[in-house]
Amino acid sequence: MKGTHSIIKTSSKLTTFSLYQNNMFGTLSQDIEVPVAANEVWKIYGTIQLANIVVKHLPNIVHRVDILEGDGGVGSILKVIFPPGTPLLTSHKEKFVVVDDVKRVKIAQVMEGGLLDLGFTLYKVKFEVIEKDKDTCITKATIEYEVKEEAIANVSFVSIQPFVDIMNLVAKCVTQGTNSQSSA
Length: 184
Description:
The protein has 184 residues and is an alpha+beta fold. It starts with 7 loop residues before the first strand and ends in a 9-residue tail after the last helix. The chain has an 8-stranded antiparallel beta sheet. It is 17% helix and 45% strand. The protein is globular, with a radius of gyration of 16 Å.
């Protein structure tokens, strides 16, 4: 976990979409390689510390996170407040529907507000930490969404970039030995 390693972005970026029964379904994903063991990286992704780190270091993405229910495990509900001036979005409530410490997968689904107010019927974000070898892992972010036909223009609000920024921040924290337990 010491500091002179570089973070290597892989060329993996995937965008897909399809139309079905007047709704548009889509996914966006991207991954990066991190020169740190998967279990060490999961110590951030698998806990509420991920939200604390993002609020502290990326206030342009998330202004505040309030834990409404739970402790960061499955079923936890968070209110995510976006920075003032974020176009059309002030906040959303999300629920952790998967937190799998064995497979190192976390899925958060927006339950209220945010893009759901703009015609989306589904918006989920999945983070995966995939072991490459004992000292290297791949972190992957995937967005899955569904939007009503009449709101298809709002798909332009879906971007993988904030999640790539989060993955790069976590990679920087773990490669430079930044204290992952720091709070917001």
